[in-house]
């Protein structure tokens, strides 16, 4: 009971109680994604090796579900980010999940042919997923689970030399059609370090001055505007990210 109360308390304090949120943790290597995930999971500060392979953490008690995908931030790992939010083929697969196998294959076959014809890398990635889905029901459910509710994008606010690199990756995510309506929480991490950038500085360097949608309760339902805000935080000091998650939770359906 103690565990349940504690867990409820953590999620409620982050505004995620009774929500089924699937959240991607993205950002350059060394930004603090894994540290944050484990802080959310068991409030412990753990020193991690750089993440080599995508991992996910799912916690579920009663109606509470919270699933976070921690995708590594180093250059090779960034190549798979898209696999976790791309729509298109993956969405089609999920639509036909409940049908009989024969219908599924009839629908998927033309897609497979299309993937083979597409010679570039993304065609091969889609092909890989299609084959995995057909051959394994488990894989299939894994793919369905990848519809994203929100992106938490972490930036090391102390690593000013990499702001441009971080902006480049962020811009690519923000301009991706698949994420057009997905809320973005930008966390400027490591403000416990004295020379870390200020919030204004970070906004400026990430080119977000005209794109943030406001802290607090801002109704964007009819506006066609994607929720996006910057919050500064220190994960090691357990400060700042709670406000960010509360802000984000109002936009998770
Ligand atoms: N000073 C300070 N260091 C932090 C903070 N959060 C994380 N770190 C440190 O930053 C380093 C990288 O953290 P990780 O969580 O491994 O970073 P990551 O984003 O998962 O990196 P990749 O797995 O390589 O993509 C670790 O040494 C952490 O201890 C913070 O709030 N303040
Ligand atoms: Mg990591």
TrEMBL record:
<feature type="binding site">
    <location>
        <position position="189"/>
    </location>
    <ligand>
        <name>GTP</name>
    </ligand>
</feature>
<dbReference type="GO" id="GO:0006886">
    <property type="term" value="P:intracellular protein transport"/>
</dbReference>
<keyword id="KW-0256">Endoplasmic reticulum</keyword>
<feature type="binding site">
    <location>
        <position position="32"/>
    </location>
    <ligand>
        <name>GTP</name>
    </ligand>
</feature>
<feature type="binding site">
    <location>
        <position position="35"/>
    </location>
    <ligand>
        <name>GTP</name>
    </ligand>
</feature>
<feature type="binding site">
    <location>
        <position position="29"/>
    </location>
    <ligand>
        <name>Mg(2+)</name>
    </ligand>
</feature>
<keyword id="KW-0460">Magnesium</keyword>
<feature type="binding site">
    <location>
        <position position="235"/>
    </location>
    <ligand>
        <name>GTP</name>
    </ligand>
</feature>
<feature type="binding site">
    <location>
        <position position="34"/>
    </location>
    <ligand>
        <name>GTP</name>
    </ligand>
</feature>
<feature type="binding site">
    <location>
        <position position="192"/>
    </location>
    <ligand>
        <name>GTP</name>
    </ligand>
</feature>
<dbReference type="GO" id="GO:0003924">
    <property type="term" value="F:GTPase activity"/>
</dbReference>
<keyword id="KW-0813">Transport</keyword>
<dbReference type="InterPro" id="IPR006687">
    <property type="entry name" value="Small_GTPase_SAR1"/>
</dbReference>
<protein>
    <recommendedName>
        <fullName>GTP-binding protein SAR1A</fullName>
    </recommendedName>
</protein>
<keyword id="KW-0653">Protein transport</keyword>
<feature type="binding site">
    <location>
        <position position="236"/>
    </location>
    <ligand>
        <name>GTP</name>
    </ligand>
</feature>
<dbReference type="Pfam" id="PF00025">
    <property type="entry name" value="Arf"/>
</dbReference>
<keyword id="KW-0342">GTP-binding</keyword>
<keyword id="KW-0547">Nucleotide-binding</keyword>
<feature type="binding site">
    <location>
        <position position="190"/>
    </location>
    <ligand>
        <name>GTP</name>
    </ligand>
</feature>
<feature type="binding site">
    <location>
        <begin position="189"/>
        <end position="192"/>
    </location>
    <ligand>
        <name>GTP</name>
    </ligand>
</feature>
<keyword id="KW-0479">Metal-binding</keyword>
<feature type="binding site">
    <location>
        <position position="33"/>
    </location>
    <ligand>
        <name>GTP</name>
    </ligand>
</feature>
<dbReference type="GO" id="GO:0005525">
    <property type="term" value="F:GTP binding"/>
</dbReference>
<dbReference type="InterPro" id="IPR006689">
    <property type="entry name" value="Small_GTPase_ARF/SAR"/>
</dbReference>
<dbReference type="GO" id="GO:0046872">
    <property type="term" value="F:metal ion binding"/>
</dbReference>
<feature type="binding site">
    <location>
        <position position="30"/>
    </location>
    <ligand>
        <name>GTP</name>
    </ligand>
</feature>
